[in-house]
Automatic annotation (TrEMBL), chain A:
The keyword Signal does not apply. It is found in: Membrane. This is ALA-interacting subunit. Keywords: Membrane, Transmembrane, Transmembrane helix. Residues 1-28 are annotated as: Disordered. It comes from the Eukaryota.
From TrEMBL, chain B:
It is a multi-pass membrane protein. SUPFAM superfamilies: Calcium ATPase, transduction domain A, Calcium ATPase, transmembrane domain M, HAD-like, Metal cation-transporting ATPase, ATP-binding domain N. Its main location: membrane. It comes from Stylosanthes scabra. The gene is ALA2_2. Residues 5-70 form the P-type ATPase N-terminal domain. This is Phospholipid-transporting ATPase. InterPro entries: ATPase_P-typ_cyto_dom_N (IPR023299), ATPase_P-typ_P_site (IPR018303), ATPase_P-typ_TM_dom_sf (IPR023298), ATPase_P-typ_transduc_dom_A_sf (IPR008250), ATPase_P-type_domA (IPR059000), HAD-like_sf (IPR036412), HAD_sf (IPR023214), P-type_ATPase_IV (IPR006539).
Length: 352, 1105
């Protein structure tokens, strides 16, 4: 006979516990959310140190970048208005569209300081939207790569086919980008001697080797209908049409430079060079600007003060913040974790 | 509608009713794809993404390859479809297992072993001991000579005790061999899901017995999924099969609960959607204007002079697609993933395992963990929830003599022992009732001990106590009860059992004393169910006093009474009783009425007092959670005094000088109204005082309050931090939850018994205690825990962490999407507003799916404060309750951050990569790298504790970004061939990236540091205290906060307008926890308009209830 009042329940509990033992979760630090953790907090020391460190690194780097950028010698000549004869000043578009007019334009430029080879020759366009959606998509990478994909022009409309003898033939290279290829040409003379502008290897090697096929030749390009920009030599494979390859690396900004060639001789300070420009490209219709740029390069690239200045600015701001926080810390020290800030009862009656 | 089941008639019912094939499957192989797609597309987000993906198929407007949206979309759909399919496959397998189980069934008069799925209605099924019941059966035979059998119903209602089932009287004594040939008809109701009722009739065909109708009750059935125990064999007629069984009918898919956080995220998504539309319209118009003015001049674009009719739409649609990433496609998947993990953490938690029974906690609902952190009201049951539900007999009062008052244990009271041994008739009668007036089944264990199987803990306590007072109830065979009193064996034959129901609040037995043949009525029940029926002339004042005295001590009382019945009186009544028991309609009510006719004129013997001990840690848990700003309501079926005593002992209410208990009572509507108004008035006055004011109301008054003075009661509910509602019914519990919910409070209901199920299902969060009253509550609940004290950890640790983590994760998801979207928008300004995408398809797709989703997923391991600190300073929960970490103003902060970062990244990219470097693919990768670096540092800065996994995810992800891009850069076919190799060799690339990181993070670090040090939130202060190793001082006791004025002024706050919500503009700077409890915003009201429009409807519901 049972005398313990809890026998029945205890017995059943034990029975259950045996049954359920297996259900008990296994202990692991992950399941218990007890993985060892690094719990940093923003102490004044840390924060001031971080800001100081940023200042210490950023200001010198900024100065270095700035000086590198300053060392770049750059000659820029904006010729879009200069190269229009006075008689056409009010009607530049008509001038540029007229095949009969003489487009050659000559200008003397003086070199301020010594330019060491290689000197990069760029053309710079402004207000030209290579990144426009209609434009940027109007190309066929497949077609550029292999001759078999000649008919792969679906993305190139409206520069996809030409009608020859009532038969539509695909244009190679198709699309607006190729069609609007820049066609101004430059000649540069120093001391009445032509400077050689090396136009090989101006495009990316990867583009020449892979993206533009060495067995793909221009076909039906700029032969009828609206003529856009430059024409291509149908006997040269696309991989050797480097101007086209450079042009087809579309720019992300409406103002951009593209490599025209390299001059592989030094230019001395006070040299007077003469540029002969064949001004063919129509930027007048949309009020774009064209410039010729000669520039040397350093480790940071061409002349661009932005990074240097930005680094110095960020570095200085960090320094100021570090000093500010240091002052605040010294003048108004505030103990961290002071329990007096924990009064849950503070009931500022005015609040709400 | 009725169903007629012809017993053992193979042919007639085959076509009429389904076979016993169980199917829990949601899908079939054929309908899986359409049905699953349909379900997924019923969600707004998915529709949105599908629309975007379809628009992208139109190559004229798509900025990127359609794969960048289709890929993730198909991935997400595939993941949830696979999950569904997997679950469904497992359901199919378990169905198959159940369906193919072999059972013995009589076919054509011969017992055959067939598969369970081939059972048809009318078949006779044979079960052996420990067999699972394959379908709902009406018993017709059992190995027990008395026709009894025992079943375990754990799978159905979670109760682990054995229940007795008995074969109908008509089948009593039929020979085993004849059972094969039995024929007859059972008239039963159409299938329903009520597992406590089965009102049917049976008529056996000759030659078995005359065609007398035999009533059937649930006692004569064994239901599907039960187990046959302690019985060699039993057999029964299948009445409900397949999915039409009681269990099958009660199966259902519960309504998904939506957390406050999900609602907020939806609202913010809506706001972003509106923002997106505005951006699209502005840019669309700007784009069209630019096209007409500028682009026509740009000859190289070759715009046709006349476009198609939809020309004007093209640019806005392009921008729509460009901006579609503003709403991150990954957020739903990320949230589902982390919510699953939160639930797992609850399941895994070692500190929430009930060591007594080794029951781990379990999160059944994996989607609502964040709500735990936002609980404002806890509605708790008393018995079994706050108390252990381990009943111990402590005191009694027999014929006016109090026993057990001196030492608190009547079993050791010398006087009582003396009275027992001297055989005082009243005491003996009292003990007899204690021992046998119940439904307890004694079983003899192998060692000879007697174990009692009781359905009610009170009965168990009484029988155990009687046994210790030498009145041992040791055997029950059929209707014969055997009791040993001082070595004298007494036998009683049970004639009728008048069962306990919660309406009658008493149970009685009619039995025949086998010693002298007298017929006795033994009753036990609540005082108000017994004392009014005392025989005229008996003084019950003594007993009333005893009941009051015991209740005052927090003891549960039962009154015991008896009377002798005359033979004819019994006979007459027994006919009525039998008739009532065989009615099909309103049987319960009819039976109660008939019972009433015999339960009067009782000789009240005495009062028993049973102690129900408080669970461990209950007062501490309540105090801690109270400090956390959670209000407690106790809803109990117990008496007012008992409830108040328990409430006092577990810190629920404070004793007099500090606390004040206001009582709402009254017997009539008018009295209740006056009482309610008085309490309300007091409550309004005292809210300004630091006093613990609580109100107590009983079920009777509550009925009036809920039905006639709902508005006043609602106001009272808002004002009162504490309430005790006693003698409430399950439906009233649910109504109270409803009232609090209608005032827009987050409610958590916790209970352990079947009477709490409705409340648990109704509340925002239902917690079930897997305790002694069975698992019914735990099954219905979203969370089940072993002990009340685990609630503290569930809310403060799991709820709080979940809230914090989701708050970060969701806002961060928007941050990163907005970041990249803003850059696209800025880029459109320098690309002729034409809708060009700066980023290529691969980057856009990988950005959401790989680059930014991994680091944020490990934020589920982040802990802002250690668990100990949170438990010590529960007040910190306020930040979660008030939604301080996710609301329109914090969201605005993230919005501003993404705008700022977009500006930084964009400006630096286009300036550092200007002139000759301004190549599209390069600029795009520089900008993308900047975003990735910034987001890594943002995650790092917002992480409070770095485990190894976080380091791996954050920095590994950064490395992964380069790895993925190098791979793409190595593929000649990809647009970004060699780009990443070129960039990584350029010093200017790295210089630009570090510049973006520094420029983007410096201001954020400065602001964060300043706030952290000079305007610290409580969380910050605790973090500092905890991590600097200083002592964490708890500031003594916390006075209850008077509620803020805004909530006090309820008179202006009618029910139609749930609660005034204040936008929080400086969420982390405000000092007073109660200053602004709410933070849903008017600025982003897009989706709220919907809920507003449904308000009239909803207010009507309030009144109707």
């Amino acid at each position: 006979m049972s005398t313990d009042p809890s026998t029945s329940s205890a017995a059943s509990a034990e029975e259950q516990s045996n049954k359920r033992k297996s259900k008990k979760p296994k202990y692991s630090r992950f399941t218990q959310q007890e993985l060892p953790a690094w719990q940093p907090i923003l102490t004044p020391r840390w924060v001031i140190a971080i800001f100081t460190l940023i200042a210490i690194i950023f200001i010198p780097v900024g100065l270095a970048a700035f000086s590198a950028s300053q060392r770049v010698v750059e000659v820029e000549f904006e010729y879009d208005s200069t190269c229009i004869p006075d008689s056409y000043k009010d009607n530049a578009t008509a001038y540029i569209k007229d095949d009969a007019t003489n487009k050659t334009c000559t200008q003397k430029l003086s070199i301020k300081s010594k330019m060491q080879a290689p000197i990069f020759v760029y053309y710079q366009l402004d207000n030209f939207y290579q990144n426009h959606r209609r434009y940027v998509k109007s190309r066929s990478d497949e077609q550029l790569r292999t001759p078999d994909k000649e008919n792969d022009v679906s993305s190139c409309s409206p520069e996809d086919y030409v009608i020859i003898n009532n038969k539509s033939q695909p244009i190679v290279p198709c699309g607006l980008i190729a069609w609007s290829l820049f066609n101004d040409t430059y000649k540069i003379q120093n001391n009445d001697k032509d400077l050689v502008i090396n136009k090989t290897n101006i495009a990316w090697a990867s583009d020449r080797n892979t993206k533009f096929g060495s067995d793909v030749y221009p076909k039906n390009f700029q032969i009828s209908g609206l003529i856009g920009g430059a024409k291509l030599d149908p006997n040269l494979p696309l991989s050797e049409q480097e101007d086209l390859i450079v042009w087809m690396r579309t720019a992300a900004l409406p103002k951009f430079r593209k490599l025209y060639g390299r001059i592989e001789t030094d230019l001395e300070a006070d040299d007077e060079i003469v540029v002969l420009i064949e001004n063919n490209y129509n930027t007048y219709e949309f009020g774009g600007k064209k410039s010729l740029v000669l520039s040397t390069a350093t480790w940071i690239g061409g002349r661009n003060n932005f990074l240097g200045i930005a680094y110095v600015v960020i570095g200085s701001i960090s320094l100021l913040l570090a000093l500010g926080f240091l002052l605040l810390y010294l003048l108004k020290p505030r103990p961290l974790g002071d329990p007096s800030y924990l009064s849950w009862n503070k009931n500022p009656g005015g609040l709400r | 509608m009725k169903r007629y089941v012809y017993i053992n008639d193979d042919e007639s019912s085959h076509d009429l009713y389904c076979d016993n094939r169980i199917s829990n499957r949601k899908y079939t192989v054929l309908n899986f794809i359409p049905k699953n797609l349909w379900e997924q597309f019923s969600r707004f987000m998915n529709q949105y993404f599908l629309l975007i993906a379809c628009l992208q198929l139109w190559s004229l407007i798509t900025p990127v390859n359609p794969a960048s949206t289709w890929g993730p979309l198909i991935f997400i759909f595939a993941v949830s479809a696979t999950k569904e399919a997997w679950d469904d496959y497992h359901r199919y397998l378990s169905d198959k297992k159940a369906n193919e189980k072999e059972v013995w069934v009589v076919k054509n008069g011969i017992k055959k072993l067939i598969q369970a799925q081939d059972i048809h209605v009318g078949n006779i099924v044979w079960l052996r001991e420990n067999d699972e019941v394959p379908c709902d059966l009406v018993l017709i035979g059992s190995s027990d000579p008395q026709g009894l059998c025992y079943i375990e119903t754990a799978a159905m209602d979670g109760e682990t005790d054995l229940k007795t089932r008995v074969i109908p009287s008509a089948c009593m004594g039929i020979d085993v061999e004849l059972l094969h040939k039995i024929k007859g008809v059972i008239e039963c109701p159409t299938p329903d899901k009520d597992i406590r009722r089965f009102d049917a009739n049976m008529r056996l065909f000759p030659p078995f017995i005359d065609n007398d109708i035999c009533p059937l009750t649930i006692k004569n059935t064994v239901l599907q999924s039960c187990y046959l125990r302690n019985t060699e064999w039993a057999c029964g007629v299948a009445v409900y099969t397949g999915n039409e069984t009681k269990l099958g009918m009660s199966r259902g898919i519960p309504e998904p609960k939506l957390t406050a956080m999900d609602a907020m995220i939806d609202k913010l998504t809506g706001a972003i959607f509106v923002f997106q539309i505005v951006v699209v319209m502005v840019l669309g118009i700007a784009g069209n204007v630019w096209k007409d003015t500028e682009a026509k001049k740009q000859w190289y674009v070759l715009y046709p002079d006349k476009g198609p009719w939809y020309e004007l739409l093209i640019i806005p649609l392009r921008f729509e697609l460009l901006c579609s990433i503003m709403i991150p496609i990954s957020i739903k998947v990320s949230l589902d993933l982390v919510k699953g993990l939160y639930a797992k953490f609850i399941d895994w938690d070692d500190q929430m395992v009930d060591l007594e029974t080794s029951t781990p906690s379990n999160a059944t609902n994996t989607a609502i963990s964040e709500d735990l952190g936002q609980v404002e009201y806890i509605l708790t049951d008393k018995t079994g929830t706050l108390t252990e539900n381990k009943m111990i007999f402590r005191r009694c009062c027999i014929s006016g003599i109090f026993y057990g008052n001196e030492n608190g244990d009547a079993l050791k009271d010398v006087e009582l022992l003396h009275a027992v041994s001297s055989g005082s008739p009243d005491v003996v009668q009292f003990l007899t009732i204690m021992a046998i007036c119940n439904t307890v089944i004694p079983t003899q264990s192998k060692t000879g001990d007697i174990l009692y199987k009781a359905q009610s803990q009170d009965e168990d306590a009484l029988v155990q106590a009687a046994a210790r007072l030498h009145m041992v109830f040791f055997n029950k065979s059929g209707n014969i009860l055997e009791v040993k009193f001082n070595n004298l064996i007494l036998q009683y034959e049970v004639l009728e059992t008048l069962e306990f129901t919660s309406d009658r609040k008493r149970m009685s037995l009619v039995l025949k004393d086998c010693q002298n043949g007298k017929i006795l009525l033994l009753s036990k029940g609540a005082d108000e169910a017994i004392l009014p029926y005392a025989r005229t002339g008996q003084q019950t004042r003594n007993f009333v006093e005893a009941v009051e005295q015991y209740a005052h001590l927090g003891l549960r009382t039962l009154c015991l009474a008896w009377r002798e019945l005359r033979e004819d009186e019994y006979r007459e009544w027994s006919l009525m009783f039998k008739e009532a028991n065989s009615t099909l309609v309103d049987r319960e009510w009819r039976v109660a009425e008939v019972c009433q006719r015999i339960e009067h004129n009782l000789e009240v013997l005495g009062v028993t007092a049973i102690e129900d001990r408080l669970q461990d840690g209950v007062p501490e848990t309540i105090e801690t959670l109270r400090k956390a700003g959670i209000n407690f309501w106790m809803l109990t079926g117990d008496k007012q005094n008992t409830a108040i005593q328990i409430a006092l002992s577990c810190n629920f209410i404070s004793p007099e000088p500090k606390g004040q208990l206001l009582s709402i009572d009254g017997k009539t509507e008018d009295e209740v109204r006056r009482s309610l108004e008085r309490v309300l008035l007091t409550m309004r006055i005292t809210t300004s005082e630091p006093k613990d004011v609580a109100f107590v109301i009983d079920g009777w008054a509550l009925d009036f309050a809920l039905n006639h003075y709902r508005k006043a009661f609602t106001e009272l509910a808002i004002l009162s931090r504490t309430a005790i509602c006693c003698r409430v019914t399950p439906s009233q519990k649910a109504q109270l939850v409803q009232i609090l919910k209608s005032c827009d409070y987050r409610t958590l209901a916790i209970g352990d018994g079947g009477n709490d199920v409705r409340m648990i299902q109704q509340a925002d969060i239902g917690v079930g205690i897997s305790g002694r009253e069975g698992l019914q509550a735990a099954r219905a609940a979203d969370y089940s825990i072993g002990k009340f004290r685990f609630l503290k950890r569930l809310i403060l640790v799991h709820g709080r962490y979940s809230y914090n983590r989701t708050a970060f994760l969701s806002q961060y998801s928007f941050y990163k999407s907005l970041l990249i979207c803003f850059i696209q928008i800025f880029f459109s300004f320098i690309s002729g507003v034409s809708g060009t995408s700066l980023f290529n398809s691969v980057s856009l797709m990988a950005y959401n799916v790989f680059y930014t989703s991994v680091p944020v997923l490990v934020s589920v391991l982040d802990k802002d404060l250690s668990e100990e600190t949170v438990i010590q300073h529960p007040q910190i929960l306020f930040y979660c309750q008030a939604g301080r970490l996710l609301n329109p103003s914090t969201f605005a902060g993230w919005f501003g951050r993404s705008l700022f970062h977009a500006i930084v990244v964009f400006l630096i990219s286009i300036h550092a990569y200007a002139y000759d470097k301004s190549e599209m693919e390069e600029v795009s990768m520089v900008a993308l790298s900047g975003c990735i670096w910034l987001q890594a540092f943002v995650v790092a800065m917002e992480t409070n504790s770095f485990t190894i996994l976080q380091h791996l995810a954050i920095w590994g992800n950064l490395a992964g970004f380069y790895a993925i891009n190098w791979i793409f850069s190595a593929l000649p076919a990809s647009g970004m061939y060699t780009i990443m190799f070129r960039l990584c060799r350029q010093p200017s690339y790295w210089i630009s990236i570090f510049l973006m990181t520094a420029a983007g993070m410096t201001p954020i670090l400065a602001i964060k540091y300043f706030r952290f040090t000079y305007r610290p939130s409580k969380i910050n202060t605790l973090q500092q205290a905890e991590r600097l190793g200083g002592p964490i001082v708890s500031l003594g006791t916390i006075e209850p906060q008077p509620r803020p004025l805004i909530e006090k002024d309820v008179s202006t706050l009618s029910i139609t307008q749930p609660k005034i919500r204040n936008p929080v503009y400086e969420p982390l700077l405000s000092d007073s926890p109660n200053a602004t409890r709410r933070s849903a915003g008017t600025p982003f009201d897009f989706f709220q308009s919907q809920s507003r429009s449904s308000l009239p409807n909803y207010s009507r519901n309030c009144k109707d209830n």
